[in-house]
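Note to self: the last two entries modelled the partners one at a time, which told us nothing about the interface. This time every component goes in together.
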Amino acid sequence: MDRRSFLKVLAGGTFGVAYGYGLFPRLAAMPAAALRELGDDALRPPEERWIPSICQQCPGGCGILVRAYGDRAVKIDGNPLHPISRGRLCARGQAALQLLYDPDRIRGPMVRVGERGAGKWRSVSWDVGLAAVAKPLAALRAQGRAHFVAMLTGPPRGLDFMVGEWFMESYGSPNLIPMARDRAAGRDEAVALMQGGEAGVTHDIENATYILSLNSGLLERHWSAVQLARAYGRFRRGRSNLRGRFVHFEPRLSVTGAKADEWVPLRPGSEGVLANGIASVLIREGRYDRDFVQERVFGFEDWRDEGGALHPGYQTLLLRYYPMERVEEESGVGRETITRIAREFSRSAAAVAIGPEGGALGAAGLHGQMAVHALNALVGNLQRKGGVLSRARMPTLSLPPVTPDAVAARSLAQPPINGGGGGAVVNGVGSAERLAARLASADPYPVEAVILRGANPLFDAHPQASFLGALDRVGLVVSLASFLDETTVHADVVLPDSTPMERWQLDTSYTLQGQPVVNLGRPVVPPTFDTRDANETLMAVAQRIGAPVSDRFPVVEPEALIKGAVVSLHAGGSGEPFGAPLEEAWTTLLEQSGWRVPHDEPFETFWEGLTARGGWWDPVYYRYEWGRVLATPSGRFELRSQRVAAWLSSLPESGREAALHGVAPSLQGLGTELLALPLAVRDDGAGDAAYDLEVNPYPIPILSGLAHTNEPWLQDITGFHLYRNWETWVEIHPQTAGERGFVDGERVWVESPSGRVLARLRLFPGAMPGVINLPVGLGHTSGGRCTAGIGDAPQRILATGVEPLTGATVYRATRARLLPVEER
Amino acid sequence: MSAPTGTTAHRARWGMVIDLDRCTACQACVVACQAENNIPNSNPHTAQGGRNIHWMEMIPFVEGEYPHTEMRLLPRPCMHCDNPPCIKVCPVGATQLSSEGIVGQINARCIGCRYCTTACPYTVKSFNWFKPQWPEVMERYLNPDVSVRFNGVVEKCTLCHHRLQKARDLAAYEGRPLQPGDYTPACVQTCPAEAMVFGDLANPRSAVAVLSRSKRAFRLLDELGTEPKVTYLREGV
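The predicted structure of the combined assembly is written out below.
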């Protein structure tokens, strides 16, 4: 027996236990005579299996095992072999059963009757439904207007996006538009500016000794909650004689703040200013990693251009523009605290700084995120154990290449409807607001048909009304959603997708150690209703459009499709199907000693391993590939971003001034070249004095990352820290409420210049005086009995603006006031 | 030293340790418990009346004044007391302490007097005010191993003892004693932070017994003499 098959037996053993659970005990527990009497079929309980699949509640990428009892799914747990979930699962993952068996799901194809958005539907057969889509699409193509079709999708990853690309290329439209589900906090863009590359970074929490969290929401809204929790547990208790220290800054006492060793209240939107304050202490006291800065960092010192003019570097920016008085005043944190924490941060063996996490709604901004990330460079923790790790390259998964026919080629050559409009960085994800403007103005051409798949812009766009108006101009709106979300309500034809556990899936993610993971899921149960895998729906549409589209985008079984897509994974030779931790350690050891022969087993064996274990990953991570880690123009960590500098110099003087105004309205008159540096400012949103309180919106942890919230298990625990659920609440400091005559438990209006929301007032001593803490995630108007009409959506009262560096619409600091609902 | 198949070598004493220093208050345990034990769904109506049922619940304790406010978050299952106040008040013997230390609830015996819900200092017992109902298709996820309770009876955390029965059966079928790890409640199994440890307190070398002797260990309302078998490990060094 060789090593590989020996290890397989080991891993197989783990699964054997999982699979055997359930069936035999029932038989064993029965008296033999009773067994004989009942006969074979009568006593046989439904077959019970644990089937590997992927959790799609959030983008975290956890592998799951679903307990299938006959044709029912009755429990979900983590897949023990999966490198992200490691046999564990979070609350949202557990609640995916309520997504699968949601009684308010779309039960079959429907076409609209009556007004758009009136919610009146007629159930139709798949034939009728598919024809209602294929006919107009075929007609548009025949008129040479294939580019008048746009498809709005979820994030650009995994099989569903690849099939979307394949369909759109075969059909002939350049308008495949991935939509941002939540307004990204700007961290990925900040990292892209400072380190280059697009894959992003992770934080090695498990091995860190000190976490400096600047409103990160680390324990509440991390992009991959299960592996984060595991890493956090080990950060605290996983090492003998070493317990990591955790300091957290946030305007309110959140769960993350409660779990930190020290919670320091921070005024909303001042993360970047505080980071620069901490950095200036490090520089003034010489507490930064000089070797790293000298070797790997660009833009620290001032520099002279060819003409001899002196330009400020990072050091000068901090010392000149971030005096302690300003940092103290804007952040609300005392200088003793700032100095003490800066010293702690620099002294700790493996310290890491983390800015606002995914889904953050605060006004830290891209420059604020740059300021936080700069701290990591100052202590030189890049690629170090317990520091910032750059994600390794994701191997290519591929579908057959398409050679568009002449008609498609002409349309594909058209500019994409959502193209352009970016700044120094374009994050690759479509902005609903920009799209709304383009749809409304029919610029550069009108859009006649929109296909929705995994996007719900009517809930996510801001303001929602503008997108609705734009959608009204589109002749045909097709939705492939599983649920009747806000946008699907406005569709003309609905061809419902099956939910994740009912279909084949292929998706990608990363571990916190930066290793790439490819997840594979097969159907656990047959479709509950008359729904179809949306990939198959697109293929059926192509069939009805006919040749040459159907030749280029033929009908392929989902399993065969995935099998084809992972051929390149097998051929690439690196990584392996998930295995026991022992196997992982062995692979890493061999490869890093130069001994490992890339996998040589036949493809079928590889495929079997993949489906039985739930996916593939590459456990071997190379830390010091600096060319990959620092893929900037300078090949260094850019404190002064050359991409921003180049973009600035391409603008006219007025454009540069406008950009500066967009970032720092309070700092006019500075040199615009400071925009290439982490020029963080706090925007306090001050305007009309009637709106006397600052708004601090925060995502509800239990709903963060979720697209579908019609899940009573989760709705029941949204505001557990205040015993609030099933409605929107607002956390106010007792003094702030008392001064305005409000009492605990009463309903109030929170009103900003852009609108108002209804909320239940809770007095909370963890709230900063003068701040309204508003939870975000409720307030859907459609989607089922446990989400429609539950709570209010505070997004719509938040101020927005355009982030000059990305061109995306982002939330800005907002002021509001409290108004009584009941007469006094 | 061969133990009878399907049991432990000695009489087990099942207990749990919850390390608050690892816990992230993510509430995975709360939802895993709802899913495993067919607990009725809540809705705005039951929520407003305080009649939601949770066998496992995240309890917040907010203390202190701004800016020195602190919040402690405790996942709270049934404590499975060795000296449970609830069984003393039950007039019909519907709640009992098993020989292995699990405080069980025999729903068919319960007359709904709710003395036990009042007697329990940890408020872990819930009364079924409503007939349990699941909308069409939602009932498909119900766990076939756990019976649904009717209205008018009290229910509580059973330490997923149906899992113990299954684990025993499986071990007996395989002709071996019950081993550590064969039996794990749903909350412990899912805990992403690895903050919950479950096992046999009677085995002094088991992980749960070792941890429950930690100097960080404390038990909720221990001073009442309830002798809880759930031990918390406090945060901090």
